Request: fold
Amino acid sequence: MIYAGNAIQVQMHDHQLAKLTFDLKNQSVNKLNAATLVELKEAIEAINIAIIGVEGVKGLMLTSAKSSFIVGADITEFLQFFGRDEQDLINANMQVNETFCALEDLPIPTVSLINGLALGGGFEVCLSTDYRIMATDAKVGLPEVKLGIFPGWGGTVRLPRIIGLDNAIEWVCGAKEKKSTVALHEGAVDAVVAHDQLLEAGEHLLNQCIKGDLSYAAKRDPKLAKLALGPMEQLMAFETSKGFVAGKAGPHYPSPVTAIKTMQKHAGMTRDKALVIEAKGFAKMAQTSVAANLVGVFLADQYLKRTVKALAKKATKVEQAAVLGAGIMGGGIAYQSAFKGVPIVMKDIAEPAITLGLDEATGILEKRVERGQMKPAQMAQVLNKIRPTLNYADIKNVDLVVEAVVENPKVKGIVLAEIEAQVKPSTVITSNTSTISIDLLAKSLKDPTRFCGMHFFNPVHKMPLVEVIRGSQSSEETIATTVAYANAMGKKPIVVNDCPGFFVNRVLFPYFGGFGLLLEQGVNFSRVDKIMERFGWPMGPAYLLDVVGIDTAHHAQAVMAEGFPDRMAGQGEAGVDLMFKEQRLGQKNKLGFYAYEKDKKGRLQKQVDDSLVEKLASLCANPQEFTDEQIIDYLMIPLCLEVARCLEENIIATPAEADLALVYGIGFPPFLGGALKYMDAIGLQNFCDKADALAGVSPLYSVPKQMREMAADGETFYNKLQPAH
Reply:
């Protein structure tokens, strides 16, 4: 044994080749945490000694004992790490770079045998070796810009010198995981072999180097040199890509463009000088609020995964599911279940609805085939997992049922009672309702312990969130089984307690209420949309209402007003009421706040309808002037206060889950981290002052008691209420 640590072991593989194995103890995956990086430095020092020692090492293979290679740096260490001053960050990165350079500078040929995921720092380790051989099912990539940073351990330096500048910019700024075929085609790896042939391929390659049949120095030298591209070619490549990437990333995500600028700065430098420039650029990005918030979202997602994993231990596995109520929503649910490998029965009482549901699933699959994401045979396999039926007898042996009929408590109650009479006693019954009380619906069942809510968001195949709504009588096994099924469908299940609107819709409608109040004071809806989109929302409130459907919003608004009459009744309702009365239902009938026409590709394009502008003007006898900041406050403050209220009332368990639900459910700007992170950043006392200034406008701006107390004590949501990640 040349070296033995808690994460790394180095030993002789045969008489001349050494094998460095990543195997982080007590972890399911390899991560480059601080301790592992220390061990990597020590291991390389030990290898240097073994090269001239009795072992006589002449070649080195990097391998992994786990199913992944290295999934990246340990993100849980990031926030503390990012809290350092800029020079400390630069120094810390350069320490890692010294280790990677020591690996790269070993006087023997080196190869990484990539057996699974090699992402971020894990792939940067691979770039430091002379060769890379990849298993056919492995993936590599540099996803750092998703966290508001960019590769800081040599990724922006080595990759352009290996695969060319244009490809490297796409890898770094696109942040996608690359399949082995792509990595080989673009030159990021030198060979792709079957998983069980990695070691043999590594041995063969290194032996060729040792014999002199291959020159590892020729592979290494370009990584140590300046970028091999002329000044004019560089200028064109960098300037073109900066404009394109800036347009794609938007103004709130600076790291992709900063990564390009950093590459441009160090393109004319040799490796060691270039790494310093990269470290400086990385440090600047690491200190931004965007990086802190995106890392926070990532950590919240990891927390959710652990929560789901713990719940899954109490779950009954869903081998066969059913959805009652076909159509668009039922078809979307059926597609998602079948696509992820859980067979599903799709039942309705009418053949046209079944056809519509199957058409929805087929349409989604056809688009995947068109994009090259699946083959026609795979599409057929998915469709074969969807069994359409008009007969209740076909659902009798399923493990879980999703009721997805019309949003009417009476109709749902009848259907739920029918389901219970048909399925086995152990079957979990769920309702895909967006607003109706789970406890109210549970009254239709003889055994309410087997019942809970399962709220999907539309379109099902695109929206990651599923709200699992716990009724007062829902059993722990019912909740666990529903969470596990949602997770198996590839969704992000977040458990919330029952109340009108549950969590997401409950906090969204005060936002719509603030929008309605602006309409009633003469503010143009398209101006509000533009301001909120610049603020960071994927679409403004008027456009979002058109997508949701004005009829759906009108119904939900009534439910919320009934559930919270002191705060939500009569608040900003006039605009939606007028739209509903005019039967301007949004995209579904191509006439809402905007008029819609299909473009050549069949996508709906919105146009401002001047006749509506005049009708909305009738809501306001005395138009008021508003600044952009006031408009933002009118919408954001009610939403954020309602989130705080839900946390106080235990509708949702933690700040992390609350913020994650908003990011995944309604597109809350991720760079802000979520509503609670947003309030923490502003300062709770400052936020209360902003709300108090609008208290006379509407009760939507009333501050909940616990939040006011926290503000007075100088607390934050993530200090006081957030569990440890």
